[in-house]
Design a protein that fits this description.
Number of domains of chain B: 2
Radius of gyration of chain A: 32 Å
Organism (chain B): Sporosarcina quadrami
Shape of chain B: elongated
Largest interface: A-B, 19 and 27 residues
CATH architecture of the largest domain in chain B: 3-Layer(aba) Sandwich
Order of helices and strands of chain A: HHEHEHEEHHHHHHHHHH
Number of domains of chain A: 2
Number of helices of chain B: 11
Strand content of chain B: 25-35%
GO molecular function, one term (chain B): ATP binding
Protein name (chain B): ABC transporter ATP-binding protein
Keywords (chain B): ATP-binding, Nucleotide-binding
Oligomer: heterodimer
CATH superfamily of the largest domain in chain B: P-loop containing nucleotide triphosphate hydrolases
Number of strands of chain A: 4
Domain ABC transporter (chain B): 2-232
Structural class of chain B: alpha/beta
Largest sheet of chain B: 6 strands, mixed
Radius of gyration of chain B: 23 Å
CATH topology of the largest domain in chain B: Rossmann fold
Largest sheet of chain A: 4 strands, mixed
Strand content of chain A: 5-15%
Order of helices and strands of chain B: EEEHEEHEHHHEHEHEEHEHEEHEH
Chain lengths: 398, 310
């Protein structure tokens, strides 16, 4: 009961502290907005910029039709615009109606030296032109491979038919062509990118989770500082002169940090959801489940800061440095995927990396079974911190 | 009400309380005088159960504090030397918090907080943050927090340090009224005049020991001389000091500074003439001289060779 009074008082004081409000509530929202917007595209959620390709084919062919059809697929973000004449294509290029113009000559693909397609970029779209050129070359090369393979097979078939076995040449040629064509088209499916759940996590989502995890860590520093402030201003001594035990004071300080951290994250979650349209996943219960255990870890760390520092200033310095190191190692500043393997292993020692990983998993639609492990680790960090600080506190005169 | 029997405490190798014994009766106003570092705050911390004692016994109403900690804490109200309040919280919120810490029920704690605000004269500032208060106002709320649970024993550890005379008077009047209403008060200070005004019995503490205790009259009787002659001389000659000490009627001679000596003596004018004559014989030039009635401060000086505010 006394512990709840102390915890309530701590939360009340924090809520009245404008500096703390700016630091703990406003800063993570602002940083999420900045980082989420600035690093959009890093997380693979953005599409290629739309490229409009104007194409004029001197003579229609199966190969050209296949190229146009393949490049028009939605995933490639290419719009193929067919010109009626060479003149029309030139006009489109002149008016910058298209980003890249392609003129496909007669018998393109049959003779690489004589019948080359011409790719013309408009100013500023040179890289798009290069990509289009490479795509056309790849198709032409594939066509050549098909053609030569077909030719070889046909030669073998003719040899067989010469020995008296009748072969349906036309049917065979068509079937071979179609099969090879299908193989080329299917190439795009050999490699695929997949997230943990069904949904892809955007940069805004990632940085919301990262900033939330990072700024909750500041409670560890703040909790340690308030402990020293109470000791310095004699309010702790005064509490201990009331009918309360030293342990209920410590429990109160722990719970104060826990409750404020929980409240801070709830406000952050609501703010990022409504202001920045961050999708925290389809299951809010999963988010709060992890937040609960993460807050235990953070409150435990606040006891460590209180126990192993000598005064408020030291708690401030140690806490600030600790938060920054944990934030960096735990992926709150840069995604862990960019880290070398050794650092990723070290990151597993940081509570924020477990929290962040869990949040992003929840965002991508993970199930409950994936959350038990991080929850256990976070609880373990919290319990270990409490035990260590208790050992230290027992040796001190509270 | 409160009994201390040969209480001792050491921190490391240093003995901070060296066997203190005293008895304080219910409804009494008891003054504990002593300079900084005398051990007053340590003694208070032990009475309140904040720190343990190494030897001896502290009893409240015959019950050892160490064995009845919870019950003891409920009847004691402590006003710490520092302003032990939460500066960003309002006066009333602070009082409510401390009231609840002493177990007051939610229903009555606000009513009690308003009563206390009236006692300390800060009703109109109830909702203001402590950080906006003057030093004197903070001290008054600091006292108020200790009164929330209507303690039987109020222990005040230098409650008037660094405040304006108006607030000091208000605090002294408040304490006097509380004592008149039956509250037992232990008042520690190094301001002799405050203790003199509030307390009937006084103990003087120095270096972890009680060096004198009793009623004001008892202590006055213990004063070595009724008068103190304060001499300001050009240069102190050891021979002059030695010869002063053997003059008839002189109790003690204390060298205050390199050119100031205090002479405690029983009689006045005859001795003064003798001192002037002695100075002239030894070629000691007296620049100024001043006669004073002896008081508690003089007694402290006489007992320890130091002033209370050193």
């Amino acid at each position: 009961m006394k512990s709840f009074l102390i915890a309530r008082k701590d939360v009340q004081i924090m809520l009245k502290d404008k500096k703390a409000f700016l630091m703990m509530i406003l800063m993570p929202i602002v940083l999420t907005a900045i980082l989420g917007t600035a690093l959009k595209g890093m997380m693979g959620e953005s599409k290629m910029p739309e490229t409009i390709v104007g194409i004029y084919t001197v003579e229609s062919s199966v190969l050209v039709d296949t190229v146009i059809e393949s490049l028009s697929e939605e995933d490639l973000a290419i719009t193929m615009k067919q010109a009626e004449s060479d003149k029309q294509l030139q006009e489109w290029i002149a008016r910058k109606d298209v980003h890249v113009g392609v003129r496909v000559p007669k018998n393109w693909g049959n003779d690489a030296t004589r019948n080359r397609a011409t790719v013309v970029p408009i100013s500023g779209q040179e890289s798009a032109a290069t990509i289009i050129q490479q795509l056309f070359e790849a198709f032409a090369q594939s066509a050549n491979i098909i053609a030569s393979s077909t030719e070889k097979v046909m030669e073998q078939a003719i040899a067989v038919s010469m020995q008296g076995n009748p072969v349906q040449m036309d049917a065979m040629q068509t079937e071979l062509g179609e099969t090879m064509q299908a193989v080329i088209v299917e190439q795009q499916d050999y490699v695929t990118e997949k997230s943990i759940g069904d949904e892809t996590v955007s940069a805004m989502q990632y940085y919301a989770a990262a900033m939330g995890a990072m700024f909750l860590l500041f409670n560890a520093m703040h909790g340690g500082k308030t402990f020293h402030r109470e000791r310095q201003t004699e309010t702790m001594a005064r509490v201990l002169m009331t009918p309360s035990s030293p342990w209920s004071f410590l429990a109160g300080k722990f719970m104060g940090t826990f409750f404020f951290a929980f409240l801070q994250f709830t406000v952050f979650l609501i703010a990022t959801h409504f202001l920045l349209q961050v999708n925290w996943g389809s299951n809010s219960l999963q988010v709060f489940f992890i937040v609960f255990f993460y807050c235990i870890a953070v409150a435990g760390l606040s006891m460590i800061v209180a126990a192993f520092t000598t005064d408020e200033k030291m708690a401030d310095v140690v806490g600030s440095l600790g938060v920054q190191v944990l934030a960096l190692l735990g992926g709150s500043m840069l995604p862990l995927t960019l880290f070398p393997a050794a650092l990723r292993k070290i990151a597993m020692l940081t509570p924020n990396s477990w929290a962040l990983d869990s949040f992003t998993s929840i965002m991508s639609g993970t199930d409950w079974s994936a959350l038990w492990m991080p929850a256990t680790v976070l609880l373990g960090i919290g319990i270990l911190s409490i035990l260590l600080s208790m050992v230290k506190f027992r040796r001190q005169v509270l | 009400m409160l009994t201390l029997i040969d209480v001792k405490k050491h921190f490391g190798s240093k003995d901070v309380i060296k066997g203190v014994s005293l008895q304080i009766e219910r409804g009494e106003s008891f003054g504990l005088l002593g300079p900084n570092g005398a051990g007053k705050s340590t003694l208070i911390a032990m009475i309140c159960g904040l720190i343990s004692y190494d030897a001896g016994s502290i009893q409240i109403d015959g019950k050892p504090v160490s064995k009845h900690m919870h019950a003891t804490k409920k009847i004691i109200g402590v006003v710490p030397q520092d302003i032990a309040l939460y500066p960003t919280m309002s006066a009333i919120d602070n009082l409510v918090f401390w009231g609840k810490m002493y177990g007051l029920k939610t229903k009555m704690v606000k009513t009690r907080a308003r009563e206390v605000l009236e006692v300390v004269g800060l009703t109109e500032r109830a909702k203001d943050r402590i950080e906006t208060f003057s030093g004197g106002m903070k001290r008054r709320i600091n006292i108020g927090a200790a009164l929330m649970h209507k303690p039987e024993l109020l222990i005040m550890d230098e409650p008037t340090v660094g405040i304006d005379p108006q607030s000091r008077n208000h605090i002294l009047e408040t304490v006097k009224k509380l004592n008149e209403q039956g509250m037992t008060v232990i008042y520690t200070s190094h301001y002799m005049e405050e203790v003199d005004y509030l307390c009937k019995r006084i103990a003087i503490m120095d270096n972890g020991k009680l060096i004198a205790s009793g009623t004001k009259k008892d202590l006055s009787n213990r004063l070595a001389g009724g008068t103190v002659l304060k001499l300001l001389i050009e240069k102190i000659e050891p021979e002059f000091i030695e010869k002063l000490k053997v003059l008839k009627g002189i109790e003690t001679v204390i060298v205050q500074t390199s050119n100031e000596i205090h002479v405690h003596m029983e009689t006045e004018m005859e001795l003064v003439s003798e001192i002037i004559l002695l100075a002239s014989q030894l070629d000691v030039k007296i620049r100024n001289m001043h006669l004073e009635e002896a008081n508690l401060e003089t007694l402290f000086l006489q007992l320890t060779g130091r002033t209370l505010r050193e």
